[in-house]
Design a protein that fits this description.
There is one protein chain. The protein has about 375 residues and is α+β, with helices and mostly antiparallel strands. It folds into two domains: about 250 residues, no CATH class; about 110 residues, no CATH class. About 35% of the residues lie in helices and about 15% in strands. A hairpin with a 2-residue loop joins strand 12 and strand 13. Helix 3 crosses helix 6, helix 4 packs across helix 5 and helix 9 crosses helix 11.
Length: about 375
């Protein structure tokens, strides 16, 4: 009999419960919200089943991993709370967090959001693509090392409560870098990116790279006010593909209005009449609304040229009747450097945090899916 299979561990979800021990779950696409529990949230019946793998085999292996890791995450949460109250050291927290990071990356790659991305071409490939990532120890440890050695570290504390997305780890771009074929502006390993790792409804770990030195205090607990908690939760819920969970019904209802539908994009490249290839790219998520609007201008192919040719007193090309200077001009100013970059050759090392081509791998580079287009 196939077990109920959680793509976000119950052991993680329990740290997001309210005082009554319950949760609220939002089906973000359907705009449906309901009360639930860690047992019934973030799960499906056949999440990890595959015709070539024994029934419940993957779920059982994940259960073994959770049995070893969740108590360590709970201990870390305890240390963070103690440090926030003046006891312990940040170096202890960092050491424990760094040791847990490879396992947390496995939790990320097994998440529902990543499974949705793997399934874009054909659902039968999603388990093989997941296993290809999480069984590659060299890749997982290299990615963890890249984060530890090149991103700033801190703890962020919510003014009210944090949400948790069905992607587990959430990422957002802090700045537009360009438009890429197979990666997004929020890929782990890129400059001007924030990585949010959930601990509890009260605390997240934040790894970030930013030219804004005031974004967070490094190696400390940063208490976010209401507005900054909202911005973090907005980034978190937009990392969700189907579900998002939180402890408070009204808060989750409010944040669900901030979720915007955006499927991963697929790009098809025909090389010859008998062969082709392609890429599936994560959806773009920006921490700043201004960057989000600017990227929309940059990728709106029907009006893009008109935006970049407009002057302040022209009617805005978006056709809402406003003058350009009172409408989209501020977003065009943000996007212009990247618009002028189109058609030029740029080395990926210019945007990666360590100056090398190392970064989170694209979703799949299509792999076996490209065979569907071979004649």
């Amino acid at each position: 009999m196939v077990k109920r299979q959680h793509y976000i561990s119950q052991g993680i979800l329990k740290s997001f419960c309210n005082g009554s021990g319950g949760l609220y779950e939002s089906m973000v696409f359907e705009k449906r919200l309901y009360g639930t529990s860690p047992l019934n949230a973030m799960c499906e019946s056949y999440t990890y089943e595959h015709e070539d793998i024994a029934e419940n085999r993957i779920e059982n292996d994940f259960a073994d991993l959770e049995g070893a890791i969740i108590p360590k995450i709970d201990a870390l949460i305890g240390k963070v709370g103690a440090f926030d109250n003046g006891n312990g050291t940040i170096s202890e927290i960092k050491e424990q967090m760094f040791n847990l990071l490879p396992s947390m990356l496995i939790f990320y790659y097994r998440s529902n959001a990543l499974l949705q991305e793997y399934s874009m071409g054909d659902k039968k490939f999603r388990i093989p693509l997941m296993l290809k990532k999480i069984l590659n120890d060299k890749y997982i440890f290299r990615l963890a090392k890249l984060i530890v050695e090149n991103y700033s570290f801190c703890i962020i504390k919510a003014e009210s409560a944090f949400l948790i997305s069905d992607q587990y780890i959430s990422t957002a771009a802090l700045k537009i870098k360009s438009v890429f074929v197979d990666i997004s502006n929020r890929h782990i390993g890129l400059k001007d990116t924030i990585i949010l790792i959930p601990l509890s409804k009260d605390y997240y770990v934040a790894f970030w790279h930013s030219s804004d030195a005031k974004m967070f205090g490094k190696d400390s607990v940063n208490r976010l006010d209401k507005e900054r908690t909202f911005r973090m939760n907005r980034a978190i819920i937009n990392n969700s593909y189907t579900k998002c969970v939180g402890p408070d019904e009204a808060q989750l209802q409010n944040m669900s209005r901030e979720w915007s539908h955006q499927s991963p994009t697929q790009i098809f490249i025909g090389h010859t009449e008998k062969s082709s290839s392609g890429f599936t790219k994560k959806k773009e998520i920006f921490y700043s609304r201004n960057d989000e609007e600017a990227f929309d201008v940059l990728t709106n192919h029907t009006t893009m040229r008109h935006f970049f040719e407009a002057t302040g007193n022209d009617r805005c090309p978006c056709r809402d009747g406003k003058l350009f200077k009172n409408c989209h001009m501020k977003y065009v100013k943000i996007a212009r450097p990247f618009y002028e970059q189109f058609g030029t050759t740029s080395y990926i090392g210019d945007i990666t945090i360590d100056g090398t081509p190392n970064h989170e791998l694209p979703i799949d580079s299509w792999g076996p899916m490209s065979r569907r287009y071979q004649i």
